[in-house]
Protein 1
Amino acid sequence: MKLKFSVGDLTIHRVIEQETTFLEARDMLPDLTPDMLAENRGWMQKAGALDDKDTLILCFQSYVVKTPHHTILIDSCIGNDKPRPTRPKWNMKTDETYMRALNAAGFSPSDIDFVMCTHLHVDHVGWNTRLQNGRWVPTFPKARYVFAKNEFDYWTEQNAKAEVPPFADSVLPVVEAKQSQIVAHDFALGDHGRILPTPGHTPGHVAFTFGKARDDVVFSGDLMHTPLQTLYPELSPRFDVDPKQAGVTRRSFLERYCDTDTLCCTAHFPSPSSGKIKRKGNGFTCEMV
């Protein structure tokens, strides 16, 4: 299984927490018809994206990007000790899988300069914090945590109406520790890192692009969860806040990177999770590297 890529002057490591069955395909993708599923079942199973019961297989992972100047963690996965009663595989987890994978890639938490979150959903912020003497503290002690302002404002508003547990235990403690950096869409990290607004899944969802003067690599977050969505960009999962907007954003993103040399690193596609976008009919494929 490929866990390390080099692109331009960047090195990218995958840090996998879980690669597992998630939801039945037609449960997660309400507009997926039985015919569409039948037509695509073969290649989806071969790609390791679907099991024999039509359940989607998703990878839950972070990426560590090493630029000539910084070490950056993209999305921080699920986390330990977090009460997540609706997701048994995530609830009050205590395993060492994630930290072992980070160490195996050659990093410790104190090596991370920036943590960048594509959005603030539960499985993208979990390791932002860890439990220490009954308190949530930042896992990465020297890191600046980058949150897009639109996204942060949206969840601040939701949390004010009723507590959003991942926001309360995995985002606010970082803000309280004065390690957060709330940024606009013109944010850049030196000449290597930029934000690409990709709204729809959540109102402030962003992708991150890296490379000197060009996009050598893009991290797409939850812009798409499964390879089926490259073929049918308008196919949105039931947890997209704005499914129509997400479909428009997805198609525009795929058009942008289609037939270019940009490596697209997805959050949830099955291993190896990263590939080049190619055109296929009215849709696209992500040809895995």
Protein 2
Amino acid sequence: MSEALDKAEAAVREAEGSTDVARIVAAVLATQQAMQQRPQAPAQQCQHDHRKPRRNAGEWIAIAAAVCVGGIGITFASIALAILGGVTGIVVLVLRGVWNDMQKGR
């Protein structure tokens, strides 16, 4: 590699003193060849693993249990809302009856 650079430098020095186009072209070509002969640095590779981690059976069982518990929680919340709606309806009907009775008593 250093031989090619030495040749390129010598060709450049020779071309500087002369206006001969052929010598200038030779110097440029020698420089290009010297640059092509340089070893390229290897591309840096990442050090981590790109594979997606897989879940094991225990994690899937835990996920299924969490979904079941969440479903049961939603079920109980829906039942509670239904009971609350029924109690609210009964209270409204009773209060309306009391209001009507008060209006008739005037």
